[in-house]
Design goal:
With about 210 residues, this protein is an alpha/beta fold. It has helices at about 20-30, 40-45, 50-55, 65-80, 90-100, 110-120, 145-150, 165-175, 190-195, 205-210; strands at about 5-10, 15, 85, 100-105, 130, 160-165, 180-185, 200. It folds into two domains: about 5-15 and about 85-210, HAD superfamily/HAD-like (Rossmann fold), CATH 3.40.50; about 20-80, Putative phosphatase, domain 2 (DNA polymerase, domain 1, Orthogonal Bundle), CATH 1.10.150.
Length: about 210
């Protein structure tokens, strides 16, 4: 059966919860350079952006950003599998979506680590493409990550959807001229998401069910 739909998923806050691993890795990175880590809420407010952008917004001097990113990644890779969980109904969402759609992941996380996480969780085989931070020059909200994902898929006819938990996901979808649906189970608040998405679902499974009915 030919699948007439393409669904691209964001990762953090859409399919997985890696908040604990992210916060701990920021604490370790700041501590490595003799600094106190910012409050958790300040860090969580930036999740979804690339790491270099996050460190800049959290007060790290521009010339020291990549050293902080390296310290973060060194620790994150050690703990990410143990301290990352699937969000409720995320596995069921991916399984249901795979029945009628070609699937991909578009994330600002490092692709290498994202693939390792999804393999660990038994989900990577459902996806035909995964685009991470190192695969693009311009991350979300720029359309480049979506364009790169579509370039790597065998076909791009039919409806194309982006599911994500932040306005960056929705703006990226709009700029790439595809449809976007927001989920409220992640880092974007309903108030924020209502300004960038006409449809907000509770989680990925509800979103996939919505798309299947279109």
């Amino acid at each position: 059966m030919t699948k007439e739909t393409i669904i691209l998923f964001d990762l953090d806050g859409t399919l997985i919860d890696s908040t604990e691993a992210i916060l701990e890795s920021f604490t370790v990175a700041f501590s490595h350079f003799g600094k106190e880590s910012p409050a958790d809420d300040l860090i969580k407010a930036q999740i979804g952006h690339p790491l270099d952008w996050m460190f800049l917004k959290l007060g790290v001097e521009e010339e020291k950003i990549w050293d902080h990113v390296a310290a973060y990644k060194q620790h994150y890779r050690k703990i990410s599998k143990a301290k990352t969980t699937l969000l409720p109904s995320a596995k069921e969402a991916v399984q249901k979506a795979s029945e009628f759609a070609i699937l991909g992941v578009v994330t600002t996380k490092t692709a290498e680590y994202s693939i390792e996480l999804l393999e660990h969780m038994g989900l990577m085989d459902y996806f035909d493409v995964l685009i991470g931070r190192e695969n693009v020059e311009h991350p979300k909200p720029h359309p480049e990550p979506i364009h790169k994902a579509l370039e790597r898929l065998p076909r791009t006819e039919g409806d194309i959807w982006m599911i994500g938990d932040t306005c960056m996901d929705m703006h990226s979808a709009e700029s790439a001229n595809i449809k976007g649906v927001a989920v409220s189970c992640g880092y974007g608040t309903v108030e924020q998401l209502s300004k960038c998405s006409g449809t907000i679902c509770t989680n990925a499974y509800e979103t996939v069910t919505f798309i299947a009915k279109q």
